[in-house]
């Protein structure tokens, strides 16, 4: 999935798509002109693969303009054999609520990027939203403002599935290794493509422009995990997609469980029985506090405590444990202990816990 976040809608994404798929040894193909003039408000599906019967003849074109989606079949030297399909459309990966609140650290809704919604026009003229899941997504943005927008997105944990590419003309590619996004220079790659098509002798100039544009990094990221495995094993990109689906499903289950638990607790808090139990528990707490003060006053004023005067400890050192145990047994919350047993029974009877 390719999208453009700034500037002329879709211009950078369209040009990046053309540079990615174009054959530098062939003339400008009809599909390239179709991509340049495509309206990105209309999603475009690009199927990449060697055209049957036209091997070695370059890129071929098949466009289907129906009520569903615009489709383009392209043969590309860079991605042939990978079974890649690209969806070119405009998306907004920023959380709408965060953007409305003006938060600097906007949160990316991964579902919006990996499961974009396409509006399909029906015969009656109405548009029906249809989700179109993708295995990987490239968020294409433009300039400093585009870099600022994608820099706030949590891309590190989704590096294998979501890549942000920012068109920064004349930015040194070697300095972008530590950035959260991939800096590119689409105009340099496009100019290099035009130069080698003018004269094959400009091949060295094209190669320098190709690597300076940093488009090869995008190609390698697209190829990672999608190349055919001779052993017939599941492609890594498919495994990542399945893991993402399971992770999202688990998050939805946990959110639903939390919602149900919250609703149950709210209902319990509002129940009359719980209100009565809270009132009785408060009464018991107050009674226990008052009893503790009164009984301790009586204990320290009694004869047992006076027998433990410091000047008498030489004669009564063996009686300290016995006297203090009697004081605690008789004076330390005896009434509160009995009331607590009664309160526990009432709580169990009410069925609150």
Describe this structure in words.
Helix 1 (11-21) packs across helix 6. The protein has three domains: 2-227, no CATH class; 235-267; 271-350. Residues 55-61 and 95-108 have low confidence and may be disordered. The protein has 14 helices and ten strands. A four-stranded parallel β-sheet has the order 1-8-9-10. A four-stranded mixed β-sheet has the order 3-4-2-5, covered by helices on one side. Strands 6-7 form a two-stranded antiparallel sheet. It is of the alpha/beta class.
SS-derived structural category:
alpha/beta
Distance between the termini: 52 Å
* Total number of beta strands: 10
Overall tally of structural domains = 3
The Rg value, from CA coordinates, equals: 36 Å
Percent of residues in helices comes to 40-55%
Q: What is the N-to-C order of secondary-structure elements (H for helix, E for strand)?
A: EHHEEEEHHEEEHEEHHHHHHHHH
Uncertain parts:
55-61, 95-108
Strand content: 5-15%
Number of helices: 14
Sheet with the most strands?
4 strands, parallel
Outline: elongated
What topology, given as strand order, has the largest sheet? 1-8-9-10
Q: What's the mean pLDDT score? A: 77
Protein name: Mmc1 C-terminal domain-containing protein
Domain Mmc1 C-terminal: 278-351
Pfam families: Mmc1_C, Mmc1_N
């Amino acid at each position: 999935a390719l999208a453009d976040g700034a500037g002329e809608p879709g211009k950078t994404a369209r040009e990046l798509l053309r540079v990615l798929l174009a054959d530098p040894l062939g003339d400008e193909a009809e599909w390239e002109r179709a991509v340049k003039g495509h309206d990105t408000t209309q999603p475009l599906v690009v199927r990449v693969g060697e055209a049957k019967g036209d091997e070695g003849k370059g890129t071929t074109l098949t466009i289907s303009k129906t009520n569903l989606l615009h489709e383009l079949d392209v043969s590309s030297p860079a991605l042939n054999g990978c079974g890649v399909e690209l969806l070119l459309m405009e998306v907004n990966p920023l959380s709408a609520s965060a953007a409305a609140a003006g938060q600097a650290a906007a949160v990316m809704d991964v579902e919006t990027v990996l499961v974009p919604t396409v509006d399909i026009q029906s015969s009656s003229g109405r548009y029906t939203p249809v989700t179109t899941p993708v295995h990987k997504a490239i968020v294409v943005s433009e300039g400093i403002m585009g870099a600022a927008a994608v820099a706030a997105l949590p891309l590190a944990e989704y590096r294998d599935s979501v890549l942000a590419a920012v068109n920064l003309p004349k930015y040194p590619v070697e300095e972008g290794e530590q950035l959260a996004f991939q800096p590119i220079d689409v105009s340099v790659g496009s100019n290099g493509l035009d130069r080698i098509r003018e004269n094959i002798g400009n091949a060295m100039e094209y190669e320098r422009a190709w690597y300076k544009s940093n488009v090869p990094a995008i190609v390698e990221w697209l190829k990672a995990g999608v190349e055919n495995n001779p052993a017939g094993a599941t492609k890594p990109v498919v495994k990542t997609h399945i893991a993402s689906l399971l992770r999202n499903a688990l998050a939805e289950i946990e959110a639903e469980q939390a919602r149900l638990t919250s609703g149950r607790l709210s209902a319990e808090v509002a129940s009359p029985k719980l209100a009565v139990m809270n009132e009785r528990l408060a009464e018991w707490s107050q009674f226990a506090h008052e009893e503790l003060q009164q009984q301790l006053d009586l204990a320290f004023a009694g004869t047992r405590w006076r027998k433990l005067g410091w000047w008498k400890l030489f004669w009564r050192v063996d009686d300290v444990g016995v006297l203090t145990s009697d004081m605690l047994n008789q004076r330390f919350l005896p009434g509160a202990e009995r009331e607590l047993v009664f309160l526990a029974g009432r709580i169990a009877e009410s069925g609150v816990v």
